[in-house]
Design goal:
The complex is a heterodimer of chains A (197) and B (166). Chain A has 3 helices and 8 strands, in the order ααβββαβββββ. Chain A is α+β, with helices and mostly antiparallel strands and 197 residues long. In chain A, β7 and β8 (188-195) form a beta hairpin. In chain B, 40% of the residues lie in helices and 21% in strands. Chain B is built from 5 helices and 7 strands. Classes of the chains: A alpha+beta (197), B alpha/beta (166).
Chain lengths: 197, 166
């Protein structure tokens, strides 16, 4: 937890620098102009200088944004190292027989996620979106994932189904996908868990 | 003598309430995100309304002032909806059945969300009902009102206009 706070502080500090740099640089221009104008009657700040300063500010801002991105990746790598990382994704295909409402995830009989989907999120999933439902750490070895889905099934009735998968956590990061699709022949939704290996 | 004592007490009470509201830990900070089920069965997530001004109110079916406040918020919502106002009313009733019964008796135009576990109530430090928070378009809590007194809507309108104009 302290690690998360540490990274958050660094990222906030970086963003503050980025925000500070832009107005500071722009504010510097009008302050410099009257001072120079007072000493010489002609306009002393040529537009080229302003452009160069602006380019410098932009490049500095870009550096800060890149640094923030690198820090974010580093944060994920440190908090969720590959040898313990478990990521669970959810995708939907068609969705004619099932309107998703909630998903509850249990890893080794312990609830790790309970997600409520809004109509907009469900629509995004139907358009091909993939949602990262859970990112966490588990030990190496055998584990069991149980996913409970609730929503509206065929004919708009309340529908609840579960799916489970026993999987082996090896040294590399583990990616699992919960896939909701339509089984046209039986006019029923189908729930499966895929192991991305 | 007694009336002067009462006046002093009332002044102290209003000062205490004002200072409580001013000291709300979320003032000026990002509003904690949540997803709750509405009474009509639709799920609502606060972060989906980033870019809108959100009026978030916490209520309970047992609280009479909450009823009065909800009645006032309905026309307010109808007036400013088109300008980008989103109103969300969160019930923190222990018993969702009671909240649903109450919802059937009122016909509000905004979503009435149910939080029987009070998780959202805790994250917003709700200790007085009703409580109103005004969240700006960037998702920061800008104004907090604890308790409700008749005529408070004028202040809501003034603050809402400020946020909607930003």
């Amino acid at each position: 937890m302290s690690m998360i706070r540490y990274f958050s502080v660094i990222r906030v500090a970086l963003l503050c620098v980025a925000l500070f740099v832009a107005p500071h640089g722009q504010a510097g221009e009008p302050a410099a102009t009257p001072a120079v104008a007072a000493s010489t009657p002609e306009p002393a700040t040529p537009p080229e200088d302003t452009r160069a300063l602006d380019e410098q500010i932009q490049s500095l801002k870009k550096d800060v944004v890149d640094l923030n991105k690198d820090l974010f990746v580093l944060e994920e790598e440190l908090l969720f190292p590959a040898n313990t990382q478990l990521a669970i994704f959810l995708s939907m295909d068609v969705g004619e027989f099932f309107a998703l409402d909630t998903v509850t995830l249990k890893v080794d009989n312990k609830e790790v996620a309970n997600y409520l989907y809004t109509p907009k999120e469900a629509e995004a999933l139907l358009k091909g979106g993939v949602h990262r439902l859970y990112l966490g750490n588990i030990k190496l070895g055998q584990h069991e994932l149980v996913a409970l889905f609730t929503g509206k099934g065929p004919n708009g009735r309340d529908y609840s189904r579960g799916a489970n998968l026993k999987f082996e956590k090896a040294v590399g990061a583990k990616y699992l996908e919960l896939k909701v699709s339509d089984r046209q022949r039986r006019a029923q939704p189908e729930f499966e868990i895929k192991d991305w290996e | 003598m007694r009336s002067s004592q009462l006046l002093t007490l009332a002044a102290l009470l209003s000062f205490a309430l004002a200072s409580i509201a001013a000291d709300h830990p979320l003032l000026g900070r990002s509003a904690p995100d949540f997803a709750l089920r509405a009474g009509n069965g639709i799920n609502v997530r606060l972060s989906e309304h980033r870019g809108d001004v959100v009026l978030l109110t916490f209520w309970s079916s047992r609280c009479n002032q909450c009823r009065a406040q909800l009645a006032v918020l309905d026309p307010l919502h109808a007036t400013y909806k088109s300008a980008g106002l989103v109103t969300l009313a969160v019930s923190i009733d222990d018993n969702p059945v009671r909240a649903r019964e109450y919802l059937q008796s009122v016909r509000s135009q905004f979503p009435m969300l149910l939080d029987p576990a009070k998780q959202v109530g805790r994250s917003y430090d709700v200790n007085v009902l009703p409580m109103v928070l005004l969240i700006d378009r960037a998702g920061a809590v800008r104004y907090v009102h604890r308790d409700y007194k008749s005529g408070a809507e004028a202040e809501y309108v003034r603050e809402l206009k400020t946020l909607l104009d930003e």
